[in-house]
Design a protein that fits this description.
Oligomer: single chain
Low-confidence stretches: none
Order of helices and strands: EHHEEHEHEEHHHEHEHEHEHEHEH
Strand content: 5-15%
CATH topology of the largest domain: Rossmann fold
CATH architecture of the largest domain: 3-Layer(aba) Sandwich
Helix content: 25-40%
Distance between the termini: 45 Å
Number of domains: 2
Number of helices: 13
Number of strands: 12
Length: 341
């Protein structure tokens, strides 16, 4: 009998979704007849397009009653809720899904789950990667998790379109540019006076001096700042920020290396086997947990920089720490990693 499974991940960012999606691969490999539907943020559905472990992505009405009715119509046997709120937990229960797997320790809603999973990071674990922590939800169902990993599946026509877009901006075929993402994917004011750009400009200039074209990527909100950085880097740097997340992934696939803070594009690159130089500036960032998955990447920290007391990346509004990393070290790492890709 086919198991119908609903994967609910309506919170968090790009990296959070990419590092949780391997849950579906683990389930599909353990239960070959399972049909797994995804309910994720609309802006991020493209990350799961072409993914063979998901049968479809649901577009669900924002109204609670309509959401509950839509989920009930799906006649799901299992709900996996790796990042959720009380609202989604209540929906899964009210929709009559018999097996509901979610996080333990949440007073407001953990009692609604049939399988409450103790999330290791909530219990002090700072050494396990987030993908491995997320796979505990699949393990709670008895699924094997060996060999699974974050993945983005691109069609060949998407890659061709990315190459054509690069060519229109002066990046010759086969040039394999350096990708540069300067944002964080957080809701912070991305203005020049509040978001340090000097070190990113220096990294770009060093890459150009070494003969590597530079392409800045990011969201539409980040585009004004990426244009400012491209101008600062000089001729040979272009900004293609503002594409869909799917088109951004196709661009990343054509790059030799990505330089970025610990942000979504870095996780996309790792899922596409593109080397990443990840800048961990904020001291509250847990490197072992959030570094790009897999081998062949490099992490650069800010060394002696001291964050203000109680500074955490989710609430910081200035990120002065991004003026403290060593641009020469970052550029050198990018050249080393990019030379073999």
């Amino acid at each position: 009998m086919q198991q119908r499974i609903l994967f609910i991940h309506t919170q968090g960012g790009i990296g959070d979704l990419l590092l949780s999606a391997p849950i579906a691969e683990a389930i599909a490999r353990s239960w070959p007849d399972a049909a797994i539907s995804a309910w994720v943020r609309p802006a991020y559905r493209g990350l799961l397009a072409g993914n063979p472990w998901f049968s479809d992505c649901l577009a669900i009405d924002r109204r609670f009653v309509a959401q509950c009715a839509a989920i009930r119509r799906g006649r799901f046997d299992v709900a996996i809720l790796p990042w959720t709120t009380a609202r989604e937990a209540a929906l899964a229960r009210l929709a009559g899904i018999p097996v509901r797997v979610g996080q333990a320790g949440r007073m407001a809603y953990s009692w609604t789950f049939s399988h409450a999973v103790a999330v290791r990071s909530a219990n002090g674990d700072q050494s396990t990667h987030w993908m491995e922590i997320q796979l505990d939800y699949a393990r709670a169902l008895g699924c094997r998790t060996d060999g699974v990993r974050p993945r983005v599946f691109l069609e060949e026509h998407e890659r061709r379109n990315a190459r054509a877009l690069l060519a229109r901006h002066g990046i010759a075929a086969g040039a394999r540019p350096c990708g540069l993402h300067i944002g964080k994917g957080l809701r912070v004011p991305l203005t020049e006076d509040r978001w340090p750009v000097a070190r990113f400009i220096e990294v770009g200039q060093r890459m150009l001096a070494a003969g590597r074209p530079v392409v800045l990527i990011g969201s539409a909100a980040e585009r004004p700042l990426t244009e400012r950085v491209a101008q600062g880097i000089g001729k040979g740097a272009v900004t293609l920020a503002g594409t869909t997340v799917r088109d951004m992934a196709a661009l990343i696939a054509e790059m030799s290396v990505i330089v970025c803070p610990d942000s979504g594009p870095g996780h996309i690159a790792a899922a596409l086997d593109v080397p990443v130089v990840a800048i961990f500036a904020v001291k509250s960032g847990v490197i072992a947990r959030w570094r790009p998955w897999g081998a062949g990447h490099r992490v650069v920290t800010t060394g002696a920089w001291t964050c203000p007391k109680r500074c955490v990346k989710e609430t910081c509004t200035r990120f002065d720490c991004l003026d403290a990393f060593d641009a020469e070290e970052v550029a050198r790492a990018a050249l080393e990693l990019g030379s073999g890709h």
